[in-house]
Amino acid sequence: MRAVAADIEPVGAVEAAPAWTLPDRGTVGMLSFIIAESAIFTIFVVAYLFYLGKSLTGPTPRDVLETPIFYTICLISSSVTIHLAGRRLARDERLTFLLLWLMTLVLGGLFMYGTAQEWHRLIYEHGLTISTNLFGTTYYSLVGLHAFHVTVGLVMLASVLVLGVAGRVGTAQSPRVEVLSLYWHFVDVVWVVVFTVVYIVGR
Amino acid sequence: MSSEVLAMQSARIDEPTWIETLHGWVTTVDHKRIGLLYILFALLFLVIAGVEALVIRIQLMYPHNDFVSPQVFNQMFTMHGTTMIFFVAMPILFGFGNYLVPLMIGARDMAFPRLNAFSFWLSALGGFLLYFSFLGGGGLYGAGAAPDVGWWAYAPLTARAFSPGSSSDYWTIAVLVSGFGSIGTAVNLVATIVCMRCPGMTLTRMPLLAWLYLTMAGMVLIAVTPLSAAQIMLLIDRYLGGHFFDTQAGGSATLWMHFFWIFGHPEVYILIIPCFAFMSEIIPVFSRKPIFGYPVMVAATVCIAFVSMSVWAHHMFTIGMNSYANSFFAITTMAVGVPTGIKIFNWLGTMWGGRIQFRTPMLFAIGFLFQFLIAGLTGVMMASAPFDWQLSLSYFVVAHFHYVIVGGILFALFAAFYYWYPKVTGRMLSERLGTLHFWLFLLGFHLTFDPMHFAGLLGMPRRIYTYEPGRGWDAINLIVSVGALIQAVAIVIFVANLIVSYWKGARAGKDPWDAWTLEWSMSSPPPAYNFASIPTVASRRPLWDLKHPEDPDSRYE
Q1: Domains of chain A with bracketed CATH
Q2: Phi, psi dihedrals of residue B394, rounded to the nearest 5°
Q3: Cβ contact A29–B228 (<8 Å)
Q4: How far apart are CA B116 and CA B104, in angstroms?
Q5: Is B512 in contact with A13 (Cβ distance < 8 A)?
Q6: How close B257 gets to chain A, by Cα (Å)?
Q7: CB contacts, 8 Å: A8 with chain B
Q8: Residue A53 Rama label (left phi>0; alpha psi -120 to 50; beta)
Q9: Would you kindly state where each structural domain of chain B is located, as residue ranges?
Q10: Which among B513, B450, B463, B480 is positioned nearest to B76, based on CA atoms?
Q11: How far, in Å, are A17, A180, B450, B523, B526 from residue B3 at the CA level?
Q12: Residue of B nearest to A22 (CA)
């Protein structure tokens, strides 16, 4: 048996068939990562819903929360701009790409400003912190986890912008930019869920 | 051919100094080296956690024994459980996956080599953090202390009031960090198996090992992350004054149990599915037959993964859920037995009518089949809620899950070690020491874990540091402890075999077992680039096709 085995040439003398294509590993990797992240967010959403109305002391969501409609529109619009930016990049229209990319960054930044303002108001006007009651704990954790993801996204968007201004982002980088764009869409979709849970169901 | 040329060239270059070798290993992004790092890291922790098990067993050998204090006993079972799951079983299975998956699907590396290295070093950091707690766990409160909250760390044991100092923080952060490492490796495995297969290797031609690792990685993505989320919540509770698991502020201890077991039960399947993968490669080769029922094996695996996501609360029958929840989780738990039974019958179907070769890997594989069957049967017993009410938190449960983890997972791992060691090192493991290891470990295993069932039936609770004489547990505990010591001797023989055979073992050559998957087509150990040219496959057994051009599998598939 061993003699037979020793005679075998390394497999691979045959040339690869040209029709063999598999999915892009960046896209598959990002999708897997998004599945994992979804599970994390699910647990935080479950905790938020489970503890609705279980706080022993105030303030309650009904007392203090205001629906951030404008900033939500900002964040959702940024999904549109990043999608358009990606299409421009694929066609090598670099200037429009950069402008749309900058718009995405600004819209995301506006959203973060909205969150910061809301937190400032809750902390200084209503005295709601993460340790005040169960609502405070679950609210800051869930919204904070999302805000953390937006922040990470903004850092990556800004990096691409800097590289783009330096002329280093072209059609060759288009697939990678699309992968980042997937992450940004995910962050937006999570906000739709968080918005529904915190500002609509939770009040 | 090309690997020989490379060997000749490298012989002319000076031998690297030890610092260059070390630098090479620390900075490596080669999937084979990272795989080996994972495995060596896990073996180190296997020995450490094994010593902790021995401390537990020496303490319980006689009634009223005072080998260790109750506090140390609590630390020992906490560290034993946490280490064995997070820093032995997970990394060793990721190690095998890292090493084998690219070789078996005809790829030169994983999809993301640097993410791969990052994930390993995160896991390693987690392990070292956990053990640093022996020095730093007391925080500013004085002497060091390891975590003592049990491997599931139920609330409110982890609250500041009941767990002062930093010991629980070391536990939380260690598990959180290693969890991030697991997620990174899982992303990598999915992307590798989906995107890096060599031409011709369609999903239905992948080796079963690749299919099962794909399933396992998918489960890691969904099941390990809830634990990460719960650990973040625990950190918020401990550091920011949150109330997630603080019952005095309306928080729920039960919620922690749910979050923990949403991870905890799928985790068992995350660990056993790669072991099914080893069985599905080893049993056919030593039965000299292709695997019986390949599509059914794949379907059963995916089915197990799916159903196992909805069984977690069978760990919680005793907390007083309503009867609908109890019925649901009892039924789903019993349902998992069906696809698992299908797999066992398929392995038996593979062996049936084969020319079975009783080499060491096959010995361990057969041990696995018997023991995993019994572990599954006691599992079905406890799936029944009333039976569980009687025996939960007793030694019956300890016996059941050690039958899964030692009798199943560890036996499968030993089979995998004896099977792939020649590929990794180029040397055969000693058959004589291997056979001795098998019989001694089998004896020790059954002496330890068979009587534990009876200790549980006689009412011995888990996690007690000592017991009164004359309750009918004395002789059982003595036998169990003797069995544990015999297992320890067997492990010493195994480790000695690994070390001695590295230098003294017989040369393995490319394909010592006359096997059929791609990893056996290259030299042992494989060259850094794996394949000089990417292979093309036409069936599930590409090497069979090469060795038997007159009757290739591709004609029938």
Answers
A1: 26-201 (1.20.120.80)
A2: -110, 175
A3: no
A4: 18
A5: no
A6: 13
A7: 510-511, 521, 543, 546-547
A8: left
A9: 2-555
A10: B463
A11: 25, 39, 50, 8, 9
A12: B195
Rg (CA), chain A: 23
Write down the pTM of the prediction.
0.94
Give residue A155's pLDDT. Answer: 98
Contact B276, B218 (CB under 8 A): no
3-state secondary structure of B427: strand
> Which residue, chain included where needed, has tokens 């491997």?
B151
**Which 3 state secondary structure label does DSSP give B507?**
strand
The span from the CA of B221 to the CA of B216, in Å, is: 9
Q: How many CB pairs under 8 A join A and B?
A: 164
Residue type, B114: R
Indicate if the pLDDT at residue B356 is higher than 50: yes
Instruction: Decide if A57 contacts A136 (C-beta within 8 A).
Output: no
Rounded CA-CA distance B103/B101 in Å is 5
Query: Which residues of chain A does B197 touch, with a Cβ-Cβ cutoff of 8 Å?
Result: 22
Selecting from A5, A11, A145 the residue whose C-beta is nearest the C-beta of B509 gives A5
Predicted complex ipTM exceeds 0.90: yes
Q: Give the model confidence (pLDDT) of B125-152 as tens digits.
A: 999 999 998 887 665 555 558 888 999 9
CA triple B418-B419-B423, angle to 5 deg: 105
Residue A49 distance to chain B (closest CA, Å): 12
Q: Which residues of B touch A44 (CB under 8 A)?
A: 229, 233
Distance from CA of B331 to the nearest CA of A (A): 24
Residues 6 or more apart from B449 whose CB is under 8 A from it?
B399, B402, B403, B406, B407, B480, B483
**Cross-chain Cβ contact A131/B240 below 8 Å:** yes
Phi and psi torsions of B427, nearest 5°? -125, 150
Successive 10-residue mean pLDDT values, chain A, 203 residues: 43 56 95 98 97 93 94 97 96 96 97 97 96 96 98 98 95 95 98 97 90
Nearest CA in chain B to A139: B242
Burial class (CB in 10 A: 0-12, 13-18, 19+), B245: buried
State the angle between helix axes of B294-308 and B253-287 in degrees (0 to 180), rounded to the nearest 10.
170
**Mean pLDDT, chain B, whole residue set:** 94
CATH number for domain B2-555, candidates 3.40.1010.10, 1.20.950.20, 1.20.1090.10, 1.20.210.10: 1.20.210.10
Question: Are A10 and B514 in contact (CB < 8 Å)?
Answer: no
The answer to whether A8 contacts B521, with C-beta atoms less than 8 Å apart, is yes
The model's pLDDT over B278-313, given as tens digits with 9 standing for 90+, comes to 999 999 999 999 999 999 999 999 999 999 999 999
